[in-house]
Design a protein that fits this description.
4 strands, 2 domains, mainly alpha
Length: 367
């Protein structure tokens, strides 16, 4: 009952991370029916291509064997000759057999890896002691999924058997007529009948493979569904707890603010709004080719702290609302001021660095 309730809560599609974790454990949507069906199709194609050559080689081996029986039996003995005949025939048939079997393995490998891709999954090779329990194994056999699989296997076997039977029934008149024909004709006609029967069975297997592939993908998606809580927990684990991230950002801002405040006493001037903005500028008269840089800036409480630290350190504080807003908006901490603000900042610095030589206009008029 608890398992049913838990499964009913899993209404969300699996996330990419969940699917990747399942893949690492070897849990993939793979249909073995596709592999078997395509391998059988490859076997039928290889039989039609290599069959005539295999038959021709067989007749040649048999003809040569019978032609050499009298002389070989008199010279080596019947038993020795038979063994040598088998060895010679094996070497002659080996390339043909390999040419027949190799495509089967190749097609089976391609059919398998085409479904799941090529990926090393060490976790899939790990042995879980719990899975080796006979009791759990029996539970799987007699579980609803095990019963369904058994029923599907019986249905598949029945479907293929009916396809083969149908192919035989359609050709039954031709099969019964073989009894009145000569041996070469019988062999040729029999090969055609067997080929059609095999084709019918393979066609049935391909239909089952398509159905099974769709079912495996559906079942894989269903098995990996997640509850909303699982998705939320996964996001926390991958992206971090939002509350923790907020605390980290707050700590980072505080540390950055502390470092910034340490640079305020070294500033040449602080330009203010006067209540909302404060920007601390540093200018080195010994290096006139370098523009002033912003060493600190902030709004509201931070602006108040910048002005407080500047006052304690004896750094001039100048009110110029338009310039303060422009500097705060356009320049990041550590950057030089842009060219469009050169003139306004120059007037501020001239007033601060050389008050006796600068004009005596009100500081608030600097813009």
């Amino acid at each position: 009952m608890a398992d049913t309730t838990e499964q009913s809560d899993k209404t969300e599609e699996a996330t990419p991370k969940r699917l990747e974790d399942a893949r690492q454990k070897g849990q993939v949507a793979m249909s073995t029916e596709v592999v078997v069906a395509l391998a059988l199709l490859a076997a039928l194609g290889a039989f039609y291509m290599a069959g005539p050559l295999l038959w021709s080689e067989s007749k040649s081996v048999i003809r040569d064997a019978f032609a050499q029986i009298p002389a070989a039996a008199a010279e080596k003995g019947t038993k020795v000759y038979f063994l040598s005949l088998v060895e010679a025939a094996s070497w002659r048939f080996l390339p043909l057999i390999l040419a027949f079997i190799a495509p089967l393995y190749l097609v089976a490998a391609v059919a398998g890896y085409a479904q799941i891709g090529i990926r090393a999954t060490p976790k899939a090779l790990e042995i879980e002691v719990g899975k080796l329990s006979p009791i759990k194994g029996m539970k799987k056999v007699f579980s609803m999924r095990g019963i369904v699989r058994t029923g599907l296997a019986i249905a598949k076997l029945t479907f293929i058997s009916l396809a083969v039977y149908g192919a035989l029934w359609v050709q039954w008149d031709g099969i019964t007529a073989l009894t009145a024909m000569e041996l070469p004709v019988v062999l040729a006609r029999s090969t055609m009948v067997m080929g059609k029967v095999a084709a019918a069975g393979i066609a049935a297997a391909i239909v089952l493979a398509v159905i099974d592939l769709a079912y495996q993908r559906h079942q894989h998606s269903k098995d990996n569904r997640m509850s909303k809580k699982e998705i939320k927990d996964e996001n926390k684990n991958t992206e971090g707890d939002p509350q923790l991230k907020a605390r980290i950002r707050a700590t980072q801002r505080e540390m950055a603010s502390n470092r910034m405040m340490q640079d305020v006493p070294e500033a040449s001037v602080v330009v203010t709004n006067p209540t909302h903005f404060a920007v601390a500028l540093k200018y080195d008269p010994a290096d006139p080719h370098r523009a002033p840089i912003v060493v600190a800036k902030g709004m509201d409480l931070i602006a108040h702290n910048i002005k407080r630290v500047a006052a304690e350190a004896g750094v001039p504080v100048v009110e110029s609302p338009p310039l303060a807003r422009g500097l705060h908006r356009l320049v990041e901490i550590g950057d030089e001021i842009p060219e469009e603000l050169f003139e306004a900042v120059a007037k501020i610095l001239a007033f601060v660095l050389n008050p006796e030589k600068s004009n005596r206009q009100p500081v608030g008029a600097v813009n």
